Amino acid sequence: MDLIGAAVGIVGGAHVERDVRIGDTSGLLGVAPVLARPASAREVSELVAWAYAHDVAILPVGGCSGYSGGVVPAFDGPGLAISLERLNRVRSLEPLLWRMEVEAGVRTATVQRLARENGLYFPPDPGAPEQSQIGGNLATNAGGPHTFKYGVTSRWVTGVEAVIAPGELVRFGGPLRKDVAGYDLRGLLIGSEGTLGIITAAWLALTPAPPRTIPVLAGYGSIAAGVEAVEAALASGVVPATLEYLEGRCLQLAPPPFLAVVPRFLVICEAESDTERGALLEALGEGAFSCEPGELWRWRGGVSLAARAALGEKLSEDIVVPLDRLGEAIEAVLEIGARHRLETTSWGHAGDGNLHATFMYDPADGAASERVQAAALELFELARELGGSVSGEHGLGLLKAGQLLGQWSVAAVSAHEQVKRALDPKGLFNPGKKVPRPAA
Ligand SMILES: Cc1cc2nc3c(=O)[nH]c(=O)nc-3n(C[C@H](O)[C@H](O)[C@H](O)COP(=O)(O)OP(=O)(O)OC[C@H]3O[C@@H](n4cnc5c(N)ncnc54)[C@H](O)[C@@H]3O)c2cc1C
């Protein structure tokens, strides 16, 4: 039987397509010869078992909101894309125990809403929650503004159900708040970008919702003054729920509706009580003020779109640097952009040292696209020079394939490759992604 016949036999003809173009927010696109939409973890395991036995590459597809081309097919030979969208059941929700179990295709926004409706909170908040799926959030170990206080996705996952080679349905962890019996294979699958297996469900930990959320923000006349304010917020003794920054160029493109004058640098913190609000107002200094969270986060969500709309396209990277190098990194991003004659800005999760360095360009201008690629390579070099990493949030995907070779020692690279070989001996899961070189 051929691949298409096998896929139809497992999920039914209505849920199989040929030659499907798959892309994400990176702008990269590829074609999967076959895409199947299984309805259950058992069907995922049957698809993987067939593909593994027949040397067919396997690509897990979530909500396609990724920024790094992780879902873009990069097959050398036959390949099967497996979309998780029909695995969309909430298996359990137990508000009194602060936990839920959901299938991989459940949207991030659904998890957040269900938590909220029960007085609880699921803190990871990557910026496309209506589109991204929990499986994709786990596979990229997604972050977002509130990870400064609450941590990234893995902090909120107590168990992972997944299909691993050669088609086994396994469970690492579960509805347990602690489990140190084995190696942390739960943690290994989280952030693995679909290169070690397919996540089919997750046990999520929730926490009581904070009683209030009060944004506290302030504008500054220079990057140096803004970064000093970030440090003052850190020294205030309060752990703000968010500690974000936006550089002046993106503020010109999407002027904050609650500010009379566009500053050179904006800092946004979030307090969860009046006491915290008072401490943060004092830390951010003269001119700091608070506003309504709804208005602020709606505006903040539109900044990325405004940057894309400026010239038609943009590349937004996600380098991360140690906190003491944040100011240097923000300045250096602007210098790199200027050297390559690109409209440049950045914004990001200041408290995490995580910058969304953004180069804007006209997609019809081939020379500009090439300058963007060259600028991105310098950006990765900058991250390494400052003791940081090429990715704090989006993962490596196709866009940053191979970039880790300059970041890690030979032994560290080899350890990663050995992990890949142990779990995926044939190198069939999402080939060309994550590990520096393809597994042998
Ligand atoms: C406007 C906007 C703002 C964003 N803001 C943030 C942000 O603040 N922080 C942040 O971290 N990200 C952010 N993102 C990026 C993106 O939303 C996240 O990376 C998200 O977690 C991707 O989820 P997805 O379901 O769309 O995954 P996809 O894009 O479909 O896939 C991403 C990777 O995960 C793999 N994968 C997907 N599902 C599974 C599965 N079930 N099992 C195994 N592997 C799987 C894919 O193969 C691929 O390698 C933003 C994106 C947009 C468009």
Number of strands: 18
- How many helices does DSSP assign? 14
Strand order, largest beta sheet: 15-12-14-13-17-18-16
Major sheet: 7 strands, antiparallel
Helix content: 25-40%
Assembly form of the protein? single chain
- Round the mean pLDDT to the nearest integer and report it: 96
- Which ranges are low-confidence, i.e. pLDDT below 50, for 5 or more consecutive residues? none
Please indicate the count of domains. Answer: 4
Note the gap between the termini: 27 Å
3D structure, described in words:
With 440 residues, the chain is an alpha+beta fold. It has helices at 3-11, 41-53, 108-117, 134-140, 147-150, 185-189, 223-235, 248-253, 274-284, 293-301, 303-311, 326-339, 366-385, 410-423; strands at 16-23, 29-36, 57-61, 79-83, 90-94, 99-103, 120-121, 157-164, 168-173, 198-205, 207-208, 214-220, 243-247, 265-271, 289-290, 313-316, 343-349, 354-361. The protein has 4 domains: 3-83, Uridine Diphospho-n-acetylenolpyruvylglucosamine Reductase, domain 2, CATH 3.30.43.10; 90-208, 2-Layer Sandwich (Uridine Diphospho-n-acetylenolpyruvylglucosamine Reductase, domain 3), CATH 3.30.465.10; 211-301, 2-Layer Sandwich (Alpha-Beta Plaits); 306-395, 2-Layer Sandwich (Alpha-Beta Plaits), CATH 3.30.70. Helix content is 33%, strand content 23%. α7 (223-235) packs antiparallel against α9. The longest helix is centred in the last third of the chain and has 20 residues, at 366-385. The mean pLDDT is 96. The structure holds flavin-adenine dinucleotide (FAD). The site of flavin-adenine dinucleotide (FAD) has 39 residues, from β3, α4 and β10. Residues 24-25, 59-67, 70-71, 84, 104, 126-128, 131-133, 135-137, 139-140, 142-144, 193-194, 198-199, 304, 393-394, 397, 430, 433 line the site of flavin-adenine dinucleotide.
